[in-house]
Amino acid sequence: MKPGTKVICINGGFPEDLRTIMTLPQAGNTYLVREIMSDPSDSAYFGIALEGRENPSDWFGVKKASCARSFASQAFAS
Predict the structure, then answer these.
(1) DSSP codes, 19-77
(2) Single pTM value for the model
(3) What are the pLDDT digits (tens) for 14-51?
(4) pLDDT at site 30
(5) Sheet arrangement for strand 30-39
(6) Cα 44 versus chain centre, distance
(7) Dihedral over Cα of 29, 67, 12, 53: its sign
(8) Partner of 33 at 20 to 30 A CA spacing, among 20, 48, 53, 55?
(9) Contact 14/34 with Cβ under 8 angstroms?
(10) What is the dihedral of CA 31, 2, 37, 25, to 10 degrees?
């Protein structure tokens, strides 16, 4: 996955606390990857920022991202 990739949300089960700070992607909808974001506290985790969606910052000023595992490349989604 890289910026510019079309992805489809395959898991809309995002944590409830995120609903208060951002508009969450909906399962079945297609999005465009704007940026790949890593978590400085967890090198195994990476998230994605989606075109047309704001990614708010947490208490430490780190931008929140959508979990990449919740998306599949549109070319591979069925």
Answers:
(1) HTTSPPP-TT-EEEEEEEEEETTEEEEEEEEETT----B-TTSPBP-EEGGGEEETTT-
(2) 0.75
(3) 767 766 667 778 889 999 999 888 766 666 677 888 89
(4) 93
(5) 66-67, 42-50, 30-39, 6-9, 71-73
(6) 15
(7) negative
(8) 20
(9) no
(10) 10
Instruction: Determine the length of the chain.
Output: 78
Cβ atoms of 32 and 75 within 8 Å: the answer is: no
Give the whole-angstrom CA distance, residue 14 versus residue 46.
15
SS3 8: strand
Amino acid 42: pLDDT: 66
> With left for phi above 0 and alpha for psi between -120 and 50, is residue 50 left, alpha or beta?
beta
The set of residues, in sequence order, having a beta carbon less than 8 Å from that of 41 and lying 6+ positions away, is: none
